[in-house]
């Protein structure tokens, strides 16, 4: 290379050394900047979490009820905050739209009406004036829930045998409802996929049979029932309401078999909503919080029975590694979680009712305690490292 006059040129060896040294310093600088950036991101996330917690600390002490209710305008964030950041606005702060017309001429199918949410919802929708088809798993066995609904002696309350895991029973239900509707061409206004089961147990404690059993009801049952009744729903330009859970938005230890099915329901609902929007069908998801105390899914006896069954089926190696004391601690945690659940199902029932009757239903409803709502927001919107620091224990 030609030298410029008056400017000394470094020797090749010296130039190479300077280049390598400079590259090393640049690499160290980039690494240091990256580490600082990661720490800054973590601290920023923690700051947001603390600000959210601080923001909610005062209102929480003033609320007369602890569970979110979308009609309660006293709950939730300030109007300006709700307007600017609607994704941070709990369902309790959103406006209540007008109801649809001619409810008395519309029919709704609810699955899982033997007890719990489904049983209460069937009665509530009947009181609103709907023609209710209450799908009951044990109707053929004369179960108390279906008998009580039959004893209402109402033309607008009709129980049907329906196991969402049985394709034949679903097909028979479609035929029965098609024949029972006054005008089948106008279709079925609403389908509420409520049937579901739950269990608990860490991954190493849960058998593959249990994973399949829970998924067969909660996920495949929802999909199977929706596909069968969708033509009737489409004719009516009606509604599909899928009952998910807060566990469909966030993971939880010892609940993997349940969480994966509810995550699946969330994804299925989103895909279906995109497909049905051009058809005029609205898809809504209800994500209840902890209402186990109101549904009687878990009694202390049932919790212990599930735990004992898991323990007996565990490989000897796993039993030896964890020990019986560990299992007893998990039983205590599950009992504590169940006892802390809300005994009042009305927030869930009102959310489903709104999804079926509102002229502008929400995509998602969050009937849950403020603690769980805030936890869902943190685990959904903040970096995972922040949520892990707060909630892994």
Describe the protein.
This protein has about 400 residues and is α/β, with parallel strands linked by helices. It contains 14 helices and seven strands. It has two domains: about 40-95 and about 370-393, no CATH class; about 95-365, 3-Layer(aba) Sandwich (Rossmann fold), CATH 3.40.50.720. The protein has helices at about 10-60, 80-85, 115-130, 145-150, 165-180, 210-235, 255-275, 290-295, 300-315, 315-320, 325-340, 345-355, 370-380, 385-390, and strands at about 105-110, 130-135, 155-160, 190-195, 240-245, 280-285, 365. Strands 3-2-1-4-5-6-7 form a seven-stranded parallel β-sheet, with helices on both faces. Helix 5 (about 165-180) runs parallel beside helix 6. It starts with 11 loop residues before the first helix and ends with a helix. InterPro entries: NAD(P)-bd_dom_sf, Sc_DH/Rdtase_CS, SDR_fam. Belongs to the short-chain dehydrogenases/reductases (SDR) family.
Strand content: 5-15%
Name the structural class.
alpha/beta
The topology string of helices and strands comes to: HHEHEHEHEHEHEHHHHHEHH
What coarse outline follows from CA principal-axis ratios?
A: globular
Strand arrangement, major sheet: 3-2-1-4-5-6-7
Number of strands: 7
> What is the CATH homologous superfamily assignment of the largest domain?
NAD(P)-binding Rossmann-like Domain
Radius of gyration: 27 Å
Under the CATH scheme, which architecture of the largest domain would be assigned? 3-Layer(aba) Sandwich
Largest sheet: 7 strands, parallel
Enumerate the spans where pLDDT stays under 50 for 5 or more consecutive residues: 1-21, 54-66, 70-94
The level of helicity is: 40-55%
Average of the residue pLDDT scores: 83
Number of domains: 2
Task: Output the CATH topology of the largest domain.
Answer: Rossmann fold
């Amino acid at each position: 290379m030609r030298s410029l006059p008056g400017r000394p040129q470094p020797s090749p060896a010296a130039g190479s050394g300077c280049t390598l040294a400079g590259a090393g310093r640049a690499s160290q600088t980039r690494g240091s900047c990256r580490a600082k950036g990661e720490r800054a991101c973590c601290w920023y996330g923690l700051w947001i979490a603390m600000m959210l917690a601080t923001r909610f600390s005062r209102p929480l002490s003033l609320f007369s009820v602890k569970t979110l209710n979308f009609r309660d305008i006293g709950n939730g964030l300030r109007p300006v905050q709700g307007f600017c950041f609607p994704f941070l606005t709990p369902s309790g702060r959103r406006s209540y739209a007008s109801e649809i017309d001619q409810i008395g001429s519309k029919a709704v199918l609810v699955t899982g009406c033997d007890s719990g949410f489904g049983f209460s919802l069937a009665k509530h929708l009947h009181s609103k004036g709907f023609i209710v088809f209450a799908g009951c798993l044990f109707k053929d066995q004369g179960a108390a829930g279906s008998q009580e609904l039959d004893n209402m002696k109402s033309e607008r309350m009709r129980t049907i045998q329906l196991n969402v895991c049985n394709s034949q029973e679903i097909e028979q239900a479609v035929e029965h409802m098609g024949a029972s509707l006054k005008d089948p061409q106008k279709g079925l206004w609403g389908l509420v996929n409520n049937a579901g089961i739950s269990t608990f147990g860490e991954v190493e404690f849960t058998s593959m049979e249990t994973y399949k059993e829970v998924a067969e009801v909660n996920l495949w049952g929802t999909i199977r029932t929706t596909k069968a009744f969708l033509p009737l729903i489409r004719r009516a330009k009606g509604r599909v309401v899928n009952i998910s859970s807060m566990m469909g938005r966030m993971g939880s230890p010892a609940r993997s078999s349940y969480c994966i099915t509810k995550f699946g329901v969330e994804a299925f609902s989103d895909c279906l909503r995109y497909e049905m929007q051009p058809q005029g069908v609205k898809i809504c998801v209800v994500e209840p919080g902890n209402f186990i105390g109101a549904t009687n899914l878990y009694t202390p006896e049932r919790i212990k029975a599930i735990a004992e069954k898991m323990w007996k089926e565990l490989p000897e190696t796993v039993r030896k590694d964890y020990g019986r004391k560990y299992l007893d601690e998990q039983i205590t945690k599950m009992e504590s979680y169940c006892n802390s659940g809300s005994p009042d199902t009305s927030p869930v029932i009102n959310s489903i009712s709104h999804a079926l009757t509102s002229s502008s239903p929400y995509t998602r409803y969050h009937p849950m305690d403020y603690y769980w709502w805030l936890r869902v927001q943190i685990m959904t919107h903040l970096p995972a490292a922040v949520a892990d620091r707060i909630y892994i224990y």
